[in-house]
Structures are given as C-alpha cells and as structure tokens.
Amino acid sequence: MAAATNILSGLLIVATAASCIPQYHRLLTLGPSTGLSVASVLIATLVAQVQAANMYYLFKASPLMESGAPVATPHSARDWLNLFQILVQWICSLFLLALVIYLPTSTPPRVLSKKVAVGLWILHVLLFVISIPAGGRAQDLVFTVIININATIINPFFSLLAAVAFFFQARVVPPAGQPNALSKWTLGFQCFTFLLLAISWPFRLILPDNMWKNGPQPALYLGWYPWVGWATVNNAILATGQGIMLLLYIRRAGLDSSISVIDEHRPLLGSDDL
C-alpha cells in the first residue's frame, strides 16, 4: 500500500509540473500576459509559499511532537515526496508570477501594480526567512508560538485569499477573439490536476489518531485543518476556481460565437429586405 501511494505521489508531482507547461508556452508565444490577473497570480504564489513554510515547520517540529506528528521521525519516503510536491507547486507558481511580471500587458492591472506585487512577494519571503532564526530550536517557546500562529491564523487567512483570487481573475478575462493568456486546455488541465491533488492529500499527509482528540473544540478545526487539512482545502479551492474560470471561458466563447454569426447574417437579411 505504501509503495503504491508513493508511486502515485511521484506521478502527481510530474503531473503538477506538466500542467503548468501549456500555460508557460501560451504566455511566451502570445507575448503579453493579457487575461491573467497580477493579484490572482501573486496570491496563488503566496499560498504556495505558505504551504512550503508549513512543511518546514512540520519537518522541524516532528521529533518533539509528543502527541504524534504528520511527518515521521526519521522522515519516510512519503514525507520527502510530500515535500517535493509542495516545492514543485511553489516553483511552478513562482515561475508563472515571474512571467506575468516580466511580460507586458495590454491594459494596466486593475487591482495591483506589478511593482507592488513584487514588493509584497519580497516582504512575504523576508518575514519567513526572519522567522527561521527568530524561532530558534524546535523546543523553544518562540518556535511553538510561531508554528501555532501559522497553523491557526495564517493558514485559514491564505485559504480565504485563494478563494478571493478568482474574483480578481474573472474581472480581467478578455472576450473571446481577443488575445488571452488563458485557454480551455490550460484551465482544464490545471483544474483536473488540482482536483487529483485535493483528493490525494488526505491519504498522503495524515494526522495521527491521538491528535484528533486534543482540546474540547471540534477536531476538524483543532487538528485536521491547521496541521494537514490545508493541503486538501487549498488544492480544492484552486480546482474549483480553475473549473469556474473554465466554465466562464467556454460560456463567453459561446456567446461571442453566437454574436459573430448574427453579425455575419445581418447584411444578407438587409439585402433580402431591399
């Protein structure tokens, strides 16, 4: 069972990277990044960075978590594959952000300028880098405070931001027939990949049984989501968002096609009247 799970995890890592290649190719071929929201891409990158920070905290704290830990000690092959999955998602999102920042846009960003986006990304990285030496050793009180703040406040906040990001994205999608960095293939491929990841994470990042019983409040919040559930929730949000964008793209393309057919027949109708 473990070997089969590891093989599937490896395949999902490859699929994650492969799902981004059509988007990169379309951007580089098209030239401008028209159709992609700077704010939406930045949020996706920050969410991926938060996930990378989560894995760092889990790896560092696992030897001292007396009530059990989602990451084994010593680290198993499953743990390393999970870490690689998170890192691949972060690298892919970071490269997309770099392309969106570097390539020109036909219209100014509506929500966030590129300079502000770069500044926010740098600030987020610096805060995480500073927290590493500030946290000290895994057994120190400061590290305990940092990891609990990350689990109970930062994780839900960025999951909420991931949902909000698609409202920004929906605002900048151009009509069909105009240059667009998105396509039904890029959206569909990524939606399917994120959906597979959301389904797979509960079987890959597992909360020990004794961690479900900590505290009087519902275990779903106190245990599952802050420590391991964020991976499932974030990917489910991304899959839902890409699916909604795919439906919007198909619907807009259908409406524009109908309008163009009507416009083509208007001269013929006019000539019949004459």
From TrEMBL:
Q: Which residues cross the membrane?
A: 36-59, 80-104, 116-134, 141-167, 187-207, 227-250
Give the signal peptide, or none.
1-18
Q: Highest taxon of the source?
A: Eukaryota
Q: Which UniProt keywords apply?
A: Membrane, Signal, Transmembrane, Transmembrane helix
- Tell me the protein's name: Uncharacterized protein
